[in-house]
Amino acid sequence: MMSFPGEEVDRQLCRDAIFPIPVACDAPCPKDCVLSMWSAWSSCSHTCSGKTTEGKQIRARSILAYAGEEGGAQCPNSSALQEVRSCNEHPCTVYHWQTGPWGQCIEDTSVSSFNTTTTWNGETSCSVGMQTRKVICVRVNVGQVGPKKCPESLRPETVKPCLLPCRKDCIVTPYSDWTSCPSSCKEGDSGIRKQTRHRVIIQLPANGGKDCTDPLYEEKACEAPQVCQSYRWKTHKWRRCQLVPWSVQQDSPGAQEGCGPGRQARATTCRKQDGGQTGIHECLRYAGPVPALTQACQIPCQDDCQFTSWSKFSSCNGDCGAVRTRKRTIVGKSKKKEKCKNSHLYPLIETQYCPCDKYNAQPVGNWSDCILPEGKVEVLLGMKVQGDIKECGQGYRYQAMACYDQNGRLVETSRCNSHGYIEEACIIPCPSDCKLSEWSNWSRCSKSCGSGVKVRSKWLREKPYNGGRPCPKLDHVNQVYEVVPCHSDCSQYIWVTEPWSICKVTFVNMRDNCGEGVQTRKVRCMQNTADGPSDHVEDYLCDPEEMPLGSRECKLPCPEDCVITEWGPWTRCTLPCNQSSFRQRSADPIRQPADEGRACPDAVEKEPCNLNKNCFHYDYNVTDWSTCQLSEKAVCGNGMKTRMLDCVRSDGKSVNLKYCEELGLEKNWQMNTSCVVECPVNCQLSDWSPWSECSQTCGLTGKMIRRRTVTQPFQGDGRPCPALMEQSKPCPVKPCYRWQYSQWSACQVQDAQCGEGARKRNISCVVSDGSADDFSKVVDEEFCTDIEPVIDGNKKVVLEETCTQPCPGDCYLKEWSSWSLCQLTCVNGEDLGFGGIQVRSRAVIIQELENQHLCPEQMLETKSCDDGQCYEYKWMASAWKGSSRTVWCQRSDGINVTGGCLVVRQPDADRSCNPPCSQPHSYCSETRICSCEEGYTEVMSSNGTLEQCTLIPVVVIPTVEDKRGDVKTSRAVHPTQPSSNPAGRGRTWFLQPFGPDGRLKTWVYGVAAGAFVLLVFIVSMIYLACKKPKKPQRRQNNRLKPLTLAYDGDADM
């Protein structure tokens, strides 16, 4: 008796089991033919039976040994080695109906609509419709045929009623009220004044309802745009100066005054921009504070200069470039006073430009950002819009306009008939999100046995641009994958083998038909079903390591030899695997050998159990978690992650779970867990803030700024926030008016040429564009009437101050210099944070050095500052000129400065020799060594100093006619007498051919050249003396005579 795993147990345990029924069998005698057992029936060849098809199953057996020639039972023919039986005998359906999907529910006009709405499948329905589908007759393995081939009684329905959901038309709200036209007028206001209204969709169309075709936004121009009027104060001439009695000033009685301080008044009226007069309440509302109506004045006394009143200005001829003048004259005793005749202090003529009506508009500054109109966005044809439409479309950018008069002075932009801007259309491109395809189908499980993965993918269709929602992380072929674990039944695909063929003997014993050979069989991968292997599939679906052999060596026994059965399966190794344990298999003898035949071998084979060869351990393995799986059609939210349990063999191969289950191993892992996929959230921004006040009250560079903030940061794969969170727009250009001092007049000392005196200056109204490099231009004072007279930050206006006119020989201080640049305290280019300082000074002018002790000291003033920079300072030097050069300190911005460079690092500016070169014809060389001028050579002392410079010796070359014929050379003899230079007595001296720099001196080359010429001359003379002379001809003597005379210098010639 055997237990389920195959172990023998006590027979009593099997008393309730069914005893196997004995089966008759034939045992071959010696030398009989031996056949194998019948193989198992093959799978059925067809799933049904018909006229041309019939299901069949086959089984076979093979010849294990041939019979002997004498007396043995012979082997049957080949047809007896195979049996066939019918299977799947039920008939096949040749023709059948095939249906298509149901179509869309269409309204059926033949059926009256419901009186009331009903609810079907959770949706409100209002009418009955019809659905249709296509039904065709199909023949197996052929295709569509005529409908008469299929039984009419089995024909499916082609039409069925359905309920239509209620049609939903587009519903919009009524228009809002028109926005109001601006009631107030702001100077420099831009754009056409419009009114707008809008409405919103409260129900989108559905189920064939009416589309939303009506506009959601309307605008119209204001019916009567308000004309912006500009008002200004007009000040009239000051009236005559009225004295203030001394008793009023001092609160005590006194005599009646005839000169001195007083008050004067003037009239002020309100004017429109075109010059027309209007009520004073308009200026009080729009033109700012009222100009001063009174001011202090002075009635000149007898010592003061007296003039007539200014005349009226001369008339203008209408030309913009014309000027007009007015005059006054000196009256009374002032005519005799020299100071009153000074036209610089007391001008008698004033000139000013005529009023000009010619103006020129010019664009200034950069363009603003592209600004979308508020309330409406114009989306151009062809632009893709996704999400928030207010962030893109057609907008406008602006550039400020400045208006100048004929004299180049900045004026109000309204004078150039401009609202202050140039407008230009611009485009803010709409963002386009990343677009991916739909998910592909899931792939097959990567493993045919155990746990694997299956994959699906999306591929990129369109990249994001203009700040659209980004793509998830893509691979190198622009795809994104989703991977989930999967489990394949290890028995779903199995190897199926056919029986072994008859052993084909290679070394044939022709007499006995036996020996060694090869036998083969077919091995196929089949899909396993509950009914057994069914369809042949690709081999890769089965485990290649488990593929049975398709051929093997075999031995065909001879007729008298023993024949045994095929080896049975190996027994299982006991666990854990150990080489001390064995497994075995057995075979049974079928035919006993004859007397002379080969005996039967041992019927049992054993082999040790080796780990991972024929013995394996098994254990559970858990796969990694899958990605978060959502419900169908969901893109984010709550989902589920899963993992798989796998049975893994000790060699790492996945096997059927039954191997682990049989061992009773624990499995306490959690296979599922909840998860969350973050939903993509687009960045949400606030509305733009109102435009800020202008950064400058006047000028060309003012800007208005508006900002927006992030109200909802983007999450996941949402659209990111744009970088532009701030927009700027130029302000309308306005002239900058201010009060400005004129230059001080010369110092005037009354009734004297020098000493203490006074100087004066005036203030005037000037206009500029607010930039530092703009030279202010004088305009009428009426433009500054509403500006407090604050000059250079000082409210105290000083028009006169004492001064000193230096007398001859006096010391005096010059005017204050301008403030220096802000200087910080820096180390290695880094500010130490002590703040900066600026300095100015007054220089002392000394006219007579004898009075230097009476001069004041130079005055210095300092003040703190915080706008300085850190500079580096470096010594610079020019090329040497003789023994000197210029050395200066240069700042890192290229400016030459005094101070700043370290004195200890200052390069030499002088390279004079020490001791100085006092010898005649000597000079100090670049190497700071005394040398001689050209044409002279150095005579050096024994200690290497220059003794004196001597003239280079000269070689005297005589002519042909010189009777003396000797050549004298100057030898190196001391040129002076010893008595004339007692200091040099007893000292050695010599000619020095090399200079201090180690190079040959010029006179050496001269001497060498002279010696060469002398040598050539001597050789020539020797040649002429040794050469045989020719007879002289007469005519030659005649020709030589004048040469001789000419050589002798005869003046008679």
TrEMBL record:
<keyword id="KW-0221">Differentiation</keyword>
<dbReference type="GO" id="GO:0001525">
    <property type="term" value="P:angiogenesis"/>
</dbReference>
<dbReference type="GO" id="GO:0030154">
    <property type="term" value="P:cell differentiation"/>
</dbReference>
<feature type="region of interest" description="Disordered">
    <location>
        <begin position="966"/>
        <end position="987"/>
    </location>
</feature>
<feature type="domain" description="Spondin-like TSP1">
    <location>
        <begin position="811"/>
        <end position="870"/>
    </location>
</feature>
<dbReference type="InterPro" id="IPR000884">
    <property type="entry name" value="TSP1_rpt"/>
</dbReference>
<dbReference type="Pfam" id="PF00090">
    <property type="entry name" value="TSP_1"/>
</dbReference>
<keyword id="KW-0037">Angiogenesis</keyword>
<comment type="function">
    <text>The soluble form promotes endothelial cell migration and filopodia formation during sprouting angiogenesis via a FAK-dependent mechanism.</text>
</comment>
<dbReference type="Pfam" id="PF19030">
    <property type="entry name" value="TSP1_ADAMTS"/>
</dbReference>
<feature type="domain" description="Spondin-like TSP1">
    <location>
        <begin position="170"/>
        <end position="228"/>
    </location>
</feature>
<keyword id="KW-0732">Signal</keyword>
<feature type="domain" description="Spondin-like TSP1">
    <location>
        <begin position="33"/>
        <end position="92"/>
    </location>
</feature>
<protein>
    <recommendedName>
        <fullName>Thrombospondin type-1 domain-containing protein 7A</fullName>
    </recommendedName>
</protein>
<keyword id="KW-0472">Membrane</keyword>
<dbReference type="GO" id="GO:0005886">
    <property type="term" value="C:plasma membrane"/>
</dbReference>
<keyword id="KW-0325">Glycoprotein</keyword>
<dbReference type="InterPro" id="IPR051418">
    <property type="entry name" value="Spondin/Thrombospondin_T1"/>
</dbReference>
<dbReference type="Pfam" id="PF23308">
    <property type="entry name" value="TSP1_TSH7A-B_C"/>
</dbReference>
<dbReference type="InterPro" id="IPR036383">
    <property type="entry name" value="TSP1_rpt_sf"/>
</dbReference>
<keyword id="KW-0812">Transmembrane</keyword>
<dbReference type="GO" id="GO:0030036">
    <property type="term" value="P:actin cytoskeleton organization"/>
</dbReference>
<feature type="domain" description="Spondin-like TSP1">
    <location>
        <begin position="434"/>
        <end position="476"/>
    </location>
</feature>
<keyword id="KW-1015">Disulfide bond</keyword>
<dbReference type="InterPro" id="IPR044004">
    <property type="entry name" value="TSP1_spondin_dom"/>
</dbReference>
<keyword id="KW-1133">Transmembrane helix</keyword>
<dbReference type="InterPro" id="IPR056991">
    <property type="entry name" value="TSP1_TSH7A-B_C"/>
</dbReference>
<comment type="function">
    <text>Plays a role in actin cytoskeleton rearrangement.</text>
</comment>
<feature type="domain" description="Spondin-like TSP1">
    <location>
        <begin position="683"/>
        <end position="736"/>
    </location>
</feature>
<keyword id="KW-1003">Cell membrane</keyword>
<dbReference type="Pfam" id="PF19028">
    <property type="entry name" value="TSP1_spondin"/>
</dbReference>
<feature type="transmembrane region" description="Helical">
    <location>
        <begin position="1003"/>
        <end position="1026"/>
    </location>
</feature>
<feature type="domain" description="Thrombospondin type-1">
    <location>
        <begin position="915"/>
        <end position="954"/>
    </location>
</feature>
<keyword id="KW-0966">Cell projection</keyword>
<dbReference type="GO" id="GO:0042995">
    <property type="term" value="C:cell projection"/>
</dbReference>
<keyword id="KW-0677">Repeat</keyword>
